Structure formats: C-alpha cells, structure tokens
C-alpha cells in the first residue's frame, strides 16, 4: 500500500442509507486498532458529497469519531468538470460511490486522474430515462457498462461490492471451491427480508415499505421481467415478477420468493456454465400489496415510498441473504442473517443497509491494502483473478454465517416454481 501522510477518500451520496451505514463502520474502525484499515482512516480526510447535503450536526451526532475528518460538499455529480476539479484539488485517492450518479461518468473522471473507485451497483441515467427499455433496465445498465469498461485502464475499480451483488459472489465462490469435486446443476442467490415495523400503527395507506431504496426495488419488482442465466445466456420470462414464486429450503427454514434480475446473476453467469438466478422475498405487507395490484401495477409508482427505518419505531424480523448450490440429490447452502434490532443498537442503521456497507467496506479495504493490477473488477473477478483478502476484510464486521446441506434437491427453477 502506498504510504501517505494524509489519505483522501471521497464518498458520493453521503446522505443515503448505505453511506450512513458505511460511515458508522468507519466510526468503529477509528476506535478499533485491529480493524484492517484503522491505520488508514486515522490518517485520512473524508470528503462527503451529496446533491442535498445535510448539516454538520447530523454527522456529528451519528459519527463523533469522524467529526474532525469530515468536509461536507453539496453539488450535482452530473457536473463532471466540477467533480474532476474536486478530485484534483483534494488529491482524492479513492472514490466510494453510493450515489445515483452515472457509473460510467464517475469512472471516466477517476480514470483520467488515476483515482481508485468502488460502488455497490451500476447506475445509468440514460437507461433510467428511456421508457422503451421497460422489462430490461438492469440488464441494459450492465451491457452499456460492459461496452465501456475496457476504456478504464488507469484506475483500480471494484464494481458492485455491496451485499448482492458483492458479498454473495464471495459466498458462491467459497462454496464452489469447498465443493469442487462435482459441478452443481444450479446456483441460486436468495434473500428473505422479513424486516417490518412491530407497531402496525406506523403503517400509512398507499405507501410502499422496503428496507432499502423503494424506487430501486420497484425497478426490479415491477419494471423488469423475471430473469435467470443458463449456459451463459440471460433468459427472460414474459410475465410479472410477482406472478410466480420459487421454493428455497435451508434445513428447517423454507420460503418462496420471486425471480428477479440482478447484477451478480449476470456476472456469475459469464463465469459458470450452470443455471443461476436470484430469488427474493420482502416483507409480507409489501408482498401482498404488489400482488393485489398486479392489474394496475404502474399506479404503484404514484404511491408514497418509505424506507423501513428503526429510528422511527421497533423493527422486527431479519434480512437473510445467501447462496444455494443445487445438485441432483442434495443442496449445499451458506447465508448471513442480521436482525434490525441488533444492528440498530450498535450501528444506528437497518440490517439491509449494514449488509451492503460490509461489502463496500471489504472492497474499499481491498483497494487500499491489496496488490491489485489496474483495471475494472466485479467481485467474482476480483476473487478469482487477484490475491485479494476480501473475505478477511469482510468478516471483520460480518462474522456470522450459517452453513448447511439438504439431503434432497428441489431441482431447477422450473421444478421449484409455484404460480400465485
């Protein structure tokens, strides 16, 4: 790692839920001498950029250990000249992008100056504005990024290092390496997020509740077609995401979730020749709400949107995210589960955002500490093509993983589906 007297890190989208969770981790890192990047953060300046920046008091109350390191800036990241000037004037070494700014545009600025870059998901403003891409927005963002990625040869960049995408690729590759004697029939990323308010009086009518960006959730849930990858080829079902559910069994746990497009399905699908999909179930309130409005699903965009925030009231449930390897006569799984009540007590955020922040933290530590060649990496590529210690960094904050095996198999997607 390059030794600097003062290290400059710029965080984009600093008022969002992921940034709040990441800053909470950094707030603990400063106090923990065993933290992998403790020595970096103690000698760092943090520049926080948001289009609607908060007050210093907001950050001081939540992150007291970071107060003297923070500089707050407010401007629109679509102003690339201003962003480039910021990178130059501050001598920024790493950009952590958890904003909605266009990924390619941010990377162009970083690549020009040799600044490292990491994000949790792909963003593309042109795709967001193009109604003709109905059904395929996530895939279109991915392919447009792929068209540009070879241009970024003067930076080190990790793309999609949240929870999923991100940590789930680490889980998948870990399980595949530990069970390398035979290739699975399929690999399914799964998530069961049961987090919801205990006090139902907090629930308002005509409001959609999720534990992360409601708009991004709806992008996957009602604006996209169900998608999976088979033989490296993305396949789409001409149907509503919420019209069909798919079974996931984890020992004594069992749930049905919907098949949704996701970045890690595409990146893992490039690498492995077996069926890959993402099966997702959110809280029961939102699940029923969408099902009951499938005939007028576009109206949901006009409803109010609310992120489930434990500071508003007690949140029950957990966010369980993992990987299921499917074989002819067995299934092997690994997952992490976090309860909002536990996470909020220590980190003042919800479980979903904290899981994403753990992935961002692991990727940031990899950029800062590991010998990585110039270029752009998805997390699966980072793990397979470099000597990164991503898993070591990740498990400093995400420590509890459940491993197990089912002694029978529910088969491929068409065998585990249930029409609603």
Alpha carbon gyration radius: 21 Å
What is the C-level CATH assignment of the largest domain? Alpha Beta
Task: Briefly note the CATH topology name of the largest domain.
Answer: Dihydrodipicolinate Reductase, domain 2
Proportion of helical residues: 25-40%
- N- to C-terminal distance: 53 Å
Largest β sheet strand count, sense and barrel closure: 10 strands, mixed
Total domain count: 2
Q: State the helix count.
A: 15
Characterization of the model:
This is S-adenosylmethionine decarboxylase related protein. InterPro entries: Homospermid_syn-like_C. It comes from Ureibacillus manganicus DSM 26584. The chain is globular, with a radius of gyration of 21 Å. The protein has 15 helices and 21 strands. The longest helix has 19 residues, at 351-369. The protein starts with 6 loop residues before the first strand and ends with a strand. The protein has helices spanning 17-29, 38-41, 56-62, 80-90, 103-113, 125-128, 137-148, 167-178, 214-221, 263-271, 284-291, 340-347, 351-369, 379-385, 390-394, and strands at 7-12, 44-50, 70-74, 94-97, 116-119, 156-159, 186-193, 196-197, 207-210, 227-230, 233-236, 244-250, 253-260, 275-281, 304-307, 315-316, 318-326, 331-339, 375-378, 402-406, 417-419. Strand 2 (44-50), helix 3 (56-62) and strand 3 (70-74) form a beta-alpha-beta unit. With 420 residues, the protein is α/β, with parallel strands linked by helices. Strands 7, 10, 11, 12, 13, 14, 17, 18, 20 and 21 form a ten-stranded mixed beta sheet that branches. Strands 3-2-1-4-5-6-19 form a seven-stranded parallel beta sheet, sandwiched between helices. The protein has a two-stranded antiparallel ribbon with strand order 8-16. Helix content is 33%, strand content 26%. The protein folds into two domains: 7-162 and 354-394, NAD(P)-binding Rossmann-like Domain (Rossmann fold, 3-Layer(aba) Sandwich), CATH 3.40.50.720; 167-350 and 401-419, Dihydrodipicolinate Reductase, domain 2, CATH 3.30.360.30.
